[in-house]
Amino acid sequence: MRTKTQVMKGLLSGKILLPIPAVATKFDLRHNNTDKQDHFDRTVLHNLESVVIEWSYQIREVLKLESSLLLLRGLNVGPETELGFWKGRQDNLQCISEQFQSPDVQTMGNILHAKESSYYTTFKTLSKEVEHALVEARDVELHLRPLRQHIEFLRETEFPRTHILIPPLFHTICLIWSHSKFYSIPARIIVLLQEFCNLLIDQV
């Protein structure tokens, strides 16, 4: 019941909330071995491994998302969509990262490690992938932020006069290309340029 409630809260907030089995907090790695305790241990371990599998699906769905998806679906979105995507991605990954650092999740990792579970590697890999993706999202969101002002200027300017706004816009895009570690990828710059083209077409 607790895990279902966590997932529902996540859906309502637009963020991924990882389901954490309550039984993980009742596990004692220092207990003496008994048949009853061993059965409890196996039950707990099975529950934790099942949760790691579920997390894997949830997190990988987030990680594989790309801002180009809407364009590929034929939607004429503007650059605000790009900025919104990376801000939302950063917030979502930050939320997941904080959950990985929580005491309950750290306890889960300790149990998987102590019991030599084959899913401990998956657990650690997910944590590392989230941290890497979070570093990427922070970098991109930071470097795209100056574009917001350019978007506002383009929105507020009549089309015949927008030509004077193009040189400073491209200067900013060139700075993003040269300074952002993770956005200096042709495919991503192409998406951004397409979105600005859509904005200019809307202004006509």
UniProtKB/TrEMBL annotation:
InterPro entries: DHC, Dynein_heavy_tail. GO terms for molecular function: dynein intermediate chain binding; dynein light intermediate chain binding. It holds the Pfam family DHC_N1. GO terms for biological process: microtubule-based movement. It comes from Pleurodeles waltl (Iberian ribbed newt). It comes from the Eukaryota. This is Dynein heavy chain tail domain-containing protein. Residues 45-204 form the Dynein heavy chain tail domain.
